[in-house]
Amino acid sequence: MSEENENVNNPAHYNQGRYEVIDVIEDWDMNFSEGNVVKYVARHRFKGEPLEDLKKARWYLDRLIQAVES
Questions:
Q1: What is the pTM of this model?
Q2: H helix or E strand, kind and range, residue 34
Q3: In angstroms, rounded to a whole number, what is the distance separating the alpha carbons of residues 18 and 62?
C-alpha cells in the first residue's frame, strides 16, 4: 500500500487503541453530529493540531445541544 493510500484509508491516528472510531460510531448508531463529536475527541491527541480538533468537536456538540433544546 502506498503512503498516499495509507493516509486516506488507514492513517496512524485512526488506529490508536483496540477500536477504530468509525466502528464504535456505527455500533452505537450515532447520527452525523454525534459521530463527529466522538471522532474529533477520540483522535485529537494523535494529530498535529489537537486544539483544532477539540474546537471542531465543540462545534458539533453545540449543534446537538441546540437541537435538543429546541
A1: 0.75
A2: helix 32-43
A3: 29
